[in-house]
Amino acid sequence: MPGPVGRGRVMRVLGIESSCDETGVALFEAGTGLLAHALHSQVALHAPYGGVVPELASRDHIRRILPLVRRVFEEAGIGLAAIDGVAYTAGPGLVGALLVGASVGRSLAYALGVPAIAVHHMEGHLLAPLLESPAPAFPFLALLVSGGHTQLVEVRALGDYRVLGDTLDDAAGEAFDKTAKLLGLPYPGGPALAALAEQGRPGRFRFTRPMVDRPGLDFSFSGLKTQVLTTVRALGTPLDDQARADIAYAFEEAVVETLVLKCRRALEQTGLERLVVAGGVGANRRLRAALSELMAQRGGAVFYPRPEFCTDNGAMIAHAGCLRLQAGERAPLAIEVHARWPLAAIGHRTP
Ligand code: KG4
Ligand code: ZN
């Protein structure tokens, strides 16, 4: 149940996510947790095009956002006047899509006379495991694996982030999506490829693990996609179902092993004992199993958001926004979004 209303009440924040192809809205209350959350996925809208069409994404966010806002207030059983702030994703992402959530969020905060906060999408992902119980304590190592990012981040406190490793080309999710396309799988490719890999047999194909023989914590996944392409061409078309599944298995194995190896290296370098996994690829079952095993071997602990909070959602934005508002940060009145916005650029922003 929501906490007491009135002066000195606990902070309640409305969060809005619209950076890509999901409209996510949530209400978060400090100390209590999530009061309500709602999501509309545009997967069916973009599926015929094989990928996200930015203009269609923006228009659909416009259609969905206010009904979703109404729905979370109804579910939480509170009125607009019961919130103390509005958080919205301000980047990185598709500019038109971001502008929808940012305009609604900033304007609503202005109309209600409460502060607004512009949230970095990847900080939302990074802190999402804190929505779960038990929540990881700071400091921890975060593996951010989404459609646009593959990063290893040392997280010492809210806003104290050191990017230790990054991808030099494709992100892990992007590699899943592109490889899925090569195998003739429908958009969104990552989950489809993971499902196909479940039917795959180990050992028939083996792809080189990218960059594991070099020191450092950076990633590169575009070569893996090329290896898959070469294999598909060598086998000739049409590929039978078992061959596609075996390739999917070997691809997933190469990605998972690479991510695990770099996590182990980062843990050794930093001496950190807690690992947090976030972003859409964090929903991958094999990755979860392998990272759990790694942390069990090391005597450490691994933390994941529940699968629905691995992919884009409003809860992570409401939550990260609440922490930032509690730290005294405020967005200016101007509605600003950023298509590109390095995570390393956000520290403790002064109000
Ligand atoms: O975090 P997210 O929802 O959006 C971005 O911020 O990019 O991540 C989406 C990415 C997509 O590339 C999708 O294919 C991938 O996460 N993904 C998966 C799985 N579920 C989603 N990749 C592998 N296995 C999955 N189960
Ligand atoms: Zn995301």
Distance from N terminus to C terminus (CA atoms, Å) equals 31 Å
Can you name the CATH architecture of the largest domain?
2-Layer Sandwich
Q: How does the overall form come out from the CA principal axes?
A: globular
Structural class: alpha/beta
What order do the SSEs take from the amino end to the carboxyl end, as H and E?
Answer: EEEHHEHEHEEEHHHHEHEHH
Strand order of the largest sheet: 3-2-1-4-5
Q: Low-confidence stretches at least 5 residues in length (pLDDT < 50)?
A: 1-7
Report the sheet-strand fraction: 15-25%
The helicity comes to 40-55%
Number of strands: 10
Question: What does this protein look like?
Answer:
This protein has 2 domains: 12-127 and 310-345, ATPase, nucleotide binding domain (Nucleotidyltransferase, domain 5), CATH 3.30.420; 138-304, ATPase, nucleotide binding domain (Nucleotidyltransferase, domain 5), CATH 3.30.420. 42% of the residues lie in helices and 18% in strands. It is built from 11 helices and 10 strands. A 5-stranded mixed sheet has the order 3-2-1-4-5, sandwiched between helices. Strands 8-7-6-9-10 form a 5-stranded mixed sheet, sandwiched between helices. α5 packs across α6 (189-197), α5 (172-182) runs parallel beside α7 (222-235) and α7 packs antiparallel against α8. The longest helix is centred in the C-terminal third of the chain and has 30 residues, at 241-270. Bound molecules: 5'-O-[(R)-(carboxyoxy)(hydroxy)phosphoryl]adenosine and zinc ion. 5'-O-[(R)-(carboxyoxy)(hydroxy)phosphoryl]adenosine binds next to α5 and α6.
